Every structure is written in structure tokens, then in C-alpha cells.
# Entry
Amino acid sequence: MNFKLLSLAVSGILTVGVTASTAAVVTTSPVQQSTDLTEFNSVHSQGAIAQNVEEQTNIRVYEKASPAVVTVDTDKSNGSGTIISPDGMVLTNAHVVAAGGTVNIILSDGRKLVADVVGFGEEGLDLAVVKIRGQNNLPTIPLARPGSVKVGQQAFAIGNPFGQFQGTFTVGIVSRIDQQRGLIQTDAAINPGNSGGPLLNSSGELIGVNTSIFTRGRGGGNIGIGFAISADKVPAFLTAVREGRAPRVAQTRSPFGNKSPQKVALNGPALSGKLTNQSSVLPADNSFFDLYSFEGKAGQQITIEMKSQEIDPYLILLGPNQREIAQDDDGAGSKDARITVRLPADGTYTLVANSYEARQSGAYTLELKASAPTAPSRAILEEEGALVAGGPVLPSDNSLYREYTFEGRSGQSVTISLESTDFDPYVAIFGPNSQLVAENDDASDSTKNAFLSVTLPATGRYRVIVNAYDASGRGRYTLTVR
# Structure
């Protein structure tokens, strides 16, 4: 995931923090003004009536819709969903359930039920339907009338942000409609974990399926720009599911379309490039980009710099599994971008040479430097331990954890590996200000061991959290910080 467009599924159980927007717009009919001052200053004033109407709308929408909003849990991801049929059909995002594994549905009343994936969207449509086993007479949310959504109307989101706050209700407006991509933009606060949950109108009808947010910060939180797949795309998809025509395997589509990356060599001469209106466009923010790839080795420390006097450079680095490794805006000083990172695995890495702003055109230079893979550096921490029953647990999911600390300095590069043959490891690092710096579940698609490569943002004491992916995790582990 990159910070420019962040899918809202969350497997990060240590992520904390949530924001909520309440930018609701309400219109009311004028009321007769009383000449009685007591009456004028009472709850019957126009402002109080408007507030009451707004509150009543919020309460009515939540009470009507929330019983049909569920949490969708898999072995690898967590999101939200909407019950759309009394027999347990649940609409969610494809990326919430695409990784496979058992799908558990947690109803609003707390019941935990098993479900099966019955269909995925085609041609990159990020929708899926799962069917809860053995249910009937479940509450549902109806679809809004096609073409009924208007910019400026109220919008309501319900979901499970950060996988910890089931039933969270936020309010905003429809900020923009992207007809080309079939997306509704909203400022109703949605965050990781809201994926697949409903965006609703003031009648409690489904107008969209929350799917992603635009954000610039490493925390991945809401900044008032969220996107939902328009409900206008849902009926045809549901028909394909019910007729058995929908794919049973997730359909993958690169966020970069059909563009093939230009192959480059590490430690070669600086490259010259230019972003123009003929360049590819990043859907997240309509910024131009060029795509490069290079072969990397586990343990190599690389530094990538993108410089320009004409645009504000932005870099995004993806690993061999197309997961984000790092991204940067101004790390090289001024407006130039720099990524310095130790590569976690052998394979082909993808580099996105991008601009911070939409549709910026201009020339740039790109330089990729790398050290030869070396023996691991001196360890800051080498710990062996065990997660055992009776140890401390995270209140979010009752998973066991242990905590270690070390002193770090600003700009220092460290790697953290957490290995276990007994459970699925999960590792996180918090800075001196107690803010999350980074977290990881699987170092690659071929291992469940966790790995992080980070540049420390400040000088001070850091906390490393050794954790199991879920509450069943028990057993021995090895933690190394270098």
C-alpha cells in the first residue's frame, strides 16, 4: 500500500488512533419566532432545532443500518461488510478476503459466524460477496436508487476502523463523484478497517462501498478524502454472483495499469527522465509517473534519489511481492526525494518516480546506489523468548506480546527480524514519542516471519513489540535488531 492511496483493509493490530469528521449539512424550514425571551432562548430556537434535526437523522440512520454492518475477519486481513440478503449474503471489498483463509463474520450483536467467498468482481472491481453459513432472517441494508447520489448530500459511514472499533459511525458529505472510475469521494472519516463497509444516504440506503483513502502520513489515517465504490456498480455484480458467473478467485490488477517498467541497474549512471502529459497517471491523485525496476539482494542497503528543479519529486518503492517498502517526498532536502532502505529479500523491485502534486510536468534525475550484500551488522538486540499463556495480552485482540527497548539516534538505519516456527510472528516499533514507526506481519509471500527495515525519525528510546498475529499464537521466538 502506498500513502497516496491506501486500501482500507487492516492486518495491523497494533495500529492506534482514529479521527472522526462531523461535517454534516442540514437544512430546516424557518420557524415562527416567539416574542417570549424565555422561549427564544430555549431549546426551541432555530439553531437548537437544526441541531436536533441533525442528531435525529444521525440516530435514525445508525439505528436502521448498523444491525446489518459486520466485521469481516480472515487469517490475513480485517475489514467491514454489509448484509444484503436475509440468508447471509455479505458485500465487502475483494482486497479484504483475497488472501484466502477462513472468513469469519462478526455480527453487530457479537456473534461470530463462518462464511464462504462466493464471488469476486471482474476487471479490477474491488468487490466480493461472502455467504454466512446457515442463516436466515438477518437484517439487511437496501441499495439506493441508481444515479441518485448528488455532490453535497449527507454521507454516513459505519465500520470497524483499525480492526478494533466495530460499529463506528462517522458523518460527512459527498465531496465529489468520479464518474470515470465509478467512485464517490467523501469527507466522512473512514480509516483502515473500514474497507468493505457501507457509505449510506440519509435514508439508510447503500450509496457506496468504502474502499480507500488518500493520505500522506505514515500512520495512514484519514485526512478527509475517502473513496467508496459507487453502489451503481453493485447490481450487475450481484446478478453475476447469483447466476454463478462471478469469478471465485480474486482478480488482480496492477495499480499502474499495463505499463511495463524500464529496467535499471544499481550503481549505474544517473538517469534522466521527464514527466509530461503523455506520462502514465496515478489514479490516487492524477499525478504523472514513470516506472522502473531493478534486481535486488536481501541485505543490500540502497539509496535512491530523485531530484528536480521543475517538479516536486515523490518516490514509491515496492518489493518483489508488490508490497510497499518505502516512499518519500522531501527526504533529500528542499523538495527532492530520497529513500534509504535495506532490502528484505532477493527479487525484482519496482520504483515509481512520481510528483507530489497532480499533473506536474518537468525533468528529473534518478540515481540508485547500493552496497554489496554484507554479513549482518552488529546486533543492537538479540533475544530469545516465548509467548506463553498468562503473559501480557493486547486488549484489541487478546494476542500475547512481549516488549523490548533500545536506544536509537535520528537517521539511524535498523533492521528488525522476528522469527518463530511455533506461531505467526508480528512485530512493531514505537518511537520515543510513543507513535507507531512501522509494523510488519510477513517479510514476503514465502514466509510468515516478520521483518522491518526503518530509518529512525528521532533520538531516544524505542520500543519493539513482539506479538502473535492472532490470539492463538503461542511458542518460542527469536528477535534480532541490527
Q: What stands out?
A: Residues 27 and 145 are 22 Å apart (CA to CA). The radius of gyration is 24 Å. Residues 10-44 have pLDDT under 50 and may be disordered.
